[in-house]
From TrEMBL:
It is a multi-pass membrane protein. It comes from Albidovulum sediminicola. This is Maltose/maltodextrin transport system permease protein MalG. It holds the Pfam family BPD_transp_1. PANTHER family: MALTOSE TRANSPORT SYSTEM PERMEASE-RELATED, MALTOSE_MALTODEXTRIN TRANSPORT SYSTEM PERMEASE PROTEIN MALG.
Length: 292
């Protein structure tokens, strides 16, 4: 039997590329995580300690950044003086409500577009996704006028409806790809056994559950981090965390400690959510990417 030469890929060029890739990832992690680290540490500092900086070029003096007495007064102030508990609840209701409504109606519409053929189907699908392409500022004025006439400005139902306006087309577009990847034979077998179309639809939902879960997370992230809708549509009675944080910046006083604490309160839940479901998020986002 003729021997085969073993090809080695461990060349100087490949080793150099691995080192460069490692350096790039390390720099990217520092660039990404350093602002969050500074924000987190500064939220426990007094105002004077937060602005202690070493002299320019004095790298040994970087330890001054860690020389402080921890205090929780900024977090206490958020919840006792600035009603951040109410704003967290508003953010949860607005983000969760919009995600649930978008998933329910979006999955029904996406399933219909995936399984039913009719004239103008592609044009309708393009029109649906084109509404998501419009800049938020372009539709804010007419939306505000409509919501004001319906007395929805400054209310949580109005804010949920505003988020759903942009989340629903996205839901239909994303979820249709998931349903396209499920073989129609599964539903045919269900209907042959006497199931209705809706029962057959429900039977395949577990197969697209990772995709639906990934979309729910994206909807929650969009609504949780939104500022423009919350500032205009939700102004007053439906104030959310980003708007409440912005109001800590006042002409006569900028509450840096409270702003840092508010930043931690705003970002920590979403970062924790992403870490907990990262495995399912990747699985869901890659569903429908490969056509069988």
């Amino acid at each position: 039997m003729a021997s085969r030469d073993v090809v080695s890929y461990d060349t100087p060029l490949s080793r150099a590329l691995k080192v460069l890739a490692g350096l790039f990832l390390a720099l990217y992690l520092v660039w990404t995580l350093l602002p969050f680290f500074v924000m987190f540490v500064s939220s426990f500092k007094d105002l004077l300690e937060a602005f202690k900086l070493p002299a320019v070029g004095d790298w040994a003096g970087i330890t001054v950044f860690f020389e402080f007495t921890p205090t929780f007064k900024h977090y206490t102030s958020l919840f006792t003086e600035n009603s951040f508990g109410t704003y967290i609840l508003n953010s949860l209701i607005a983000a969760g409500g919009s995600a649930v409504i978008s998933v329910i109606f979006g999955s029904l519409a996406a399933y219909s577009l995936s399984r039913v053929d009719f004239r103008g189907k592609q044009d309708l699908f393009f029109w649906i996704i084109s509404t998501r392409m419009a800049p938020v500022v372009a539709v804010m004025v007419p939306l505000y006028a409509i919501f004001r006439s319906l007395d929805l400005v400054g209310t949580l139902p109005g804010l949920i409806l505003a988020y759903t306006t942009f989340n629903l087309p996205f839901a239909i577009w994303i979820l249709k790809g998931f349903f396209d990847n499920v073989p129609f034979a599964i539903e045919e077998a269900q209907m042959v056994d006497g199931s209705t179309r809706f029962q057959a639809f429900r039977s395949i939902l577990p197969l697209v559950a990772p995709g639906i879960g990934a979309f729910v997370v994206l909807c929650i992230l969009f609504a949780w981090n939104d500022f423009l809708f919350a500032a205009i549509i939700g102004s007053g009675g439906a104030k959310t965390l980003p708007v409440a944080t912005r109001e800590l910046v006042q002409p006569q006083n900028i509450q840096w400690g409270s702003i840092m604490a508010a930043g931690v309160v705003t970002t920590a839940p979403m970062m924790l959510l992403g870490l907990v479901i990262r495995k399912y998020l990747v699985t869901g986002l890659t569903m429908g990417a490969v056509k069988e």
